[in-house]
Design brief:
alpha+beta; 98 residues; 18% helix
Length: 98
C-alpha cells in the first residue's frame, strides 16, 4: 500500500473510510466532540482507494502562565475491508515519526 499525506479529510474521504457502518467511531449516544484534524497520513490501495488514516493537530495549551504547543493524534480509522492487517498501527507509527 502507498503512504500519502493529506490535509483535513473531505466528506467524500471520510465516507470512503467509514463505508456503510452506522457508527464507525463508536460514539453514538455520547456527548463527545472531536476537533477536526488538520493533517492526515493515509494508506491507499493499489487501486487508489483509502484503506486507513490517522490525523493530528497542533494546539496551544496554557499551563500556568506558560503557553505550550501540544500535538493531538486522532481520527484513526481503517476501512472495514482492510481491518486486521495492522494498517492502523502503520498510520499511527507514521504520525509519531513526524
Amino acid at each position: 500500500m502507498e503512504l500519502t499525506e493529506l490535509g483535513a479529510l473531505s466528506q467524500a474521504q471520510r465516507a470512503e473510510l467509514e463505508g456503510d457502518e452506522p457508527d464507525p467511531w463508536g460514539t453514538t449516544g455520547s456527548e463527545l466532540a472531536w476537533r477536526p484534524k488538520d493533517h492526515h497520513v493515509a494508506l491507499r490501495t493499489p487501486e487508489g482507494r483509502l484503506a486507513a488514516t490517522a490525523g493530528w493537530l497542533i494546539a496551544d495549551l496554557e499551563v500556568g502562565k506558560e503557553l505550550l504547543q501540544v500535538v493531538g493524534i486522532g481520527g484513526v480509522i481503517v476501512a472495514p475491508a482492510h481491518r486486521g492487517q495492522g494498517l492502523g498501527r502503520r498510520v499511527i507509527a507514521e504520525v509519531l515519526g513526524r
